[in-house]
Design a protein that fits this description.
435 residues; mainly alpha; 21 helices
Length: 435
């Protein structure tokens, strides 16, 4: 009974102590992580995930619930889980759950930067004529513990999904940092966690973008209605100034983009992001941000973050098979051709609206060199070159000939674009000469 009551008390302290007693919270987190490692070796596993997610209102009720489950399991002769109680947690308890769940998960696997290091070693060995490494990553540690925690999380997927969605939409950087830590460590539990977490984050981003677009449409409709009623420009400006502070903005998506950038450097999460066609979604977001940048200065830094995330997704060195030949990684671990094509077209359509820093980032992504994309741009490998051709043609065909030629020629020079981007525009000119 002592380990059971200790587990319940530690989980309850972790839930109730957030924001009130940092020392108690830290001690509870440490005790919970250590106890789970010890109990797992002894063949006993309490429902710590359910306790942290608020399924047990107090330590005494948690103890009674665990004892009742054990008695019921002994009577039935199985280990069936009871139905999930309704959670009741506030922001402090949710933050404590983010921290504690990150504590109990084993260390990140593969290690940070391992994919890029192995890819560089494999490419260097191939260039020297030697054999490539036979094994990509070392075997992860604590395999049995990882399996136990993954099984516990599977029993509480709905509550875990609510926790992740709440953290992704939170304003607090501390909450989002704790969420990134939890996602990275949870993604190391098994192959199904990254595909489970990525759609939750993307759904929050879609909701934020849809809310911002809807708010803009409502404001435009209100101004058009005022103009039709004969109200002057001064009245419309006052209405606009009153509506904007409380309306959702396109720059609100920054919160989720900041979460996705570190996750895109993890092979499992990058593969899940590419599978969910996030590059095409980001291309549309980039274009909307650029068009909105004149009215909202906050769009410029968010545009830079989107370009940074796109570069990370185009990096073939972040791979589940980093010891494979680079040509193979460029085909398997970079965006699909249609998604990369849409990205190129969006960057070209937004080029005249980008500031100097974002223009340089866009140029390095397209033509290189781009450190975030493995040291190369799209122009350095075959699929990227095809994306450049198709994206350039798609953009050119959507423009009037005079506007397109102006942007390619004197327009880009007038924007003080980087030399690499000017070279790319010359490439566009050659590709679109027959249009």
């Amino acid at each position: 009974a002592y380990p059971t009551s200790t587990s319940a008390a530690a989980a309850a302290a972790a839930r109730s102590g957030a924001g009130r007693c940092h020392d108690l919270l830290l001690q509870a987190r440490q005790q919970l992580a250590v106890c789970l490692c010890c109990w797992q070796r002894c063949g006993w596993w309490p429902d710590c995930v359910g306790a942290l997610l608020g399924h047990y209102p107090s330590a005494s009720e948690a103890l009674q619930q665990i004892q009742a489950e054990e008695a019921d399991a002994r009577a039935k002769g199985d280990r069936s889980a009871p139905p999930r109680p309704a959670p009741c947690q506030g922001p402090r308890q949710l933050l404590a759950a983010l921290f504690a769940l990150g504590d109990v998960c084993p260390p990140e696997w593969p290690a940070p930067g391992a994919s890029q290091q192995i890819a560089a070693t494999a490419d260097a060995a191939a260039a020297a004529g030697g054999p490539r490494p036979a094994v990509a990553f070392d075997r992860p540690t604590h395999m049995q513990l990882r399996s136990k925690i993954a099984g516990s999380c599977e029993c509480h997927m709905a509550a875990l999904a609510d926790l992740v969605s709440w953290g992704a939409a939170a304003e607090s950087k501390l909450v989002r940092a704790a969420l990134v830590r939890l996602c990275v460590k949870a993604g190391s539990l098994g192959g199904g966690m990254s595909p489970f977490l990525v759609p939750l984050l993307l759904e929050v981003l879609r909701e934020q973008l849809d809310a911002a677009i809807k708010a803009q449409q409502q404001i435009k409709a209100q101004l058009a209605k005022m103009a039709a009623a004969g109200q002057g420009a001064a009245a419309q400006q006052r209405a606009l100034q009153a509506a904007l502070p409380n309306a959702p903005q396109l720059s609100d998506g920054r919160k989720v983009i900041e979460l996705l950038i570190p996750l895109a450097s993890k092979p499992g999460f990058k593969a899940a992001l590419l599978e969910h066609k996030v590059v095409g979604m980001l291309a549309k977001y980039l274009h909307k941000l650029a068009n909105r940048s004149k009215e909202d200065s906050q769009c410029h830094p968010v545009t830079g973050l989107v370009l940074q995330l796109l570069a990370a997704l185009c990096n073939p060195d972040v791979s589940m098979s980093p010891n494979a030949p680079r040509a193979q990684r460029e085909q398997e671990d970079t965006p699909l051709l249609r998604d990369a094509r849409d990205m190129v077209a969006a960057i070209l359509a937004s080029a005249h609206l980008l500031d100097a820093d974002n223009m340089a980032a866009a140029a390095s992504l397209l033509v290189g060199p781009c450190a975030a994309a493995g040291g190369q741009g799209l122009a350095q490998y075959s699929r990227g070159q095809a994306a450049l051709r198709q994206g350039a043609l798609r953009w050119f065909q959507s423009q009037s000939p005079d506007a397109a030629n102006y942007m390619i020629g004197t327009g880009v020079a007038g924007l003080r674009a980087p030399a690499t981007f000017v070279q790319f525009c010359q490439f566009v000119q050659l590709q679109t000469r027959h249009c």
